[in-house]
Amino acid sequence: MKSRGSLLALSVLLFVTFSLLPASADARTGPWEPRHTWVFMVGLVEWQDKTSFDSFPADNRKDTALLDTFKKRGIPTSQIVYLQDRQATTDVVQAKFNDFLQRPAPGDWVLVYFEGHGFRTDNDEKILATYDATEQGLGWNFRSIPDAIEKNFRGDHAVIMLDNCYSGAMADAVTATQRRVSYAVLASSMAAQESTGNWTYTEAMINGFSGEPFADLNHDGRVTLRELAKNAETDMLFGEQQVATTAVTGGFDPETVIAITKAAVSPRIGERVEAHSAGEWWRAYIVAEKGPRVLVHYYGYEQSQDRWILTKNIRVPLYDSPFHPGEKVEVAYKHDWYPAHILNIRGQSHYVTYDDYDTDENEWVPTTRIRKLSE
Fold first, then answer.
1. How many domains does the chain have?
2. Half-sphere exposure of 186 toward its Cβ, with a 13 Å CA cutoff?
3. Parallel, antiparallel or unpaired: strands 37-43 and 80-84
């Protein structure tokens, strides 16, 4: 989630996505082992510098729901470190992370999760905003995470999950140098993209690790790491008009099984739709079906607001953009509109270059931030 920082955007990077890796029908990888997994979580919805970093509602936060999911899956509480809000100062995060990494045994996995603001400095440093972060660079540097893992962790597999602006830059960080550890990066946005203020990406992680039937894309009763990532990518592109980043390095096997699922009662469970309610169409996905009605979960809303909708009041959504590559447009940033060109399109997310700025200002933006030029 969730930064509304400077117009400066991170450069686009090359990475290997799970969705592009070759799938093998015969691949049978051993399951993920929760009891041999160590989790380091940092979740923030408030910051000391309230001018630079907007706060987010603390009600129904999903980082704690993800924490509960890990515990339910069997990760021992003694193997989890969770720092929340004011606990998560820069010095505390870095010190506790280094100490934490020395505890796992060879063969164990480490899983790192961060939720909050992400930003970059004027000298192109990519930073995760800890509680006392400043726009001048104080915070948790992206590249310091794999560097610390390489130095202190005795295992060989690390999963890094980020729900913040510019989080795709972690794929660049893990490939910046030759690494001993194999990494899986699951990030809510591209390196040159702000991230939604909603909990959609973290919810997708919860659904996958919980073994929700709609996360099992090939309906074989198992959720693999590949399927976890692909389901999250689809949620972000459809629900938030945002391009998530997923990457693997070294010997990390995307066919690793992370959850066993229950059979879906209806083939429509997990279907992305638009539901008509209160005179408007809302993006959602189906979580249950009963007769002529379906229960839908709306993107950006709590489960308490899930609603039963008559099937006649849902429709197949439009995935295509009303714009095209090369088109001259205007793009909104804060309260102003800037002339730009569209370079690339994925679903309804657009990679744009600003006419009056250098290419290092290029970024991915949703349809809602773009308008056609006036005639």
1. 3
2. 28
3. parallel
Query: CA-CA distances (angstroms) from residue 291 to 59, 286, 308?
Result: 34, 14, 11
Give the domain extent around 339.
Answer: 328-372
SS3 label, residue 329? strand
Beta-bridged to residue 342, according to DSSP, are 352
Using CA atoms in the order 137, 139, 144, 145, what is the torsion angle rounded to 10 degrees?
-150
> 252 and 287 in one domain?
no
Kind and range of the H or E run holding 259: strand 257-260
Averages of pLDDT over each 10 residues, the chain, 375 residues? 33 37 42 95 96 90 97 98 98 98 97 95 87 90 97 96 94 93 94 82 96 89 95 90 92 94 82 91 91 92 91 85 92 90 90 89 87 78
Spacing of C-alpha 220 from chain mean position: 25
Identify whether residues 104 and 62 lie together within a single domain. Answer: yes
d(CA 229, CA 15): 14
E strand or H helix that includes residue 222 = strand 222-224
Residues 333 and 194 in one domain: no
pTM of the predicted model over 0.85: no
**Phi/psi of residue 338, nearest 5 degrees:** -125, 135
336's CB contacts (< 8 A; 6+ apart) are none
**Domain ends where: 214, 232, 260?**
260
The per-residue b/e assignment along 139-173, b for 16 or more CB within 10 angstroms, e otherwise, is: bbbbbbbbbbbbebbebbbbbbbbbbbbbbbbbbb
Number of H helices, E strands in the chain: 6, 21
- Burial state string for 19-51 with b = 16 or more CB within 10 A and e = fewer than 16: eeeeeeeeeeeeebebebbbbbbbbbbebeeee
| Together in a domain, 283 and 365 | no
Mark whether 225 and 295 lie in a shared domain.
no
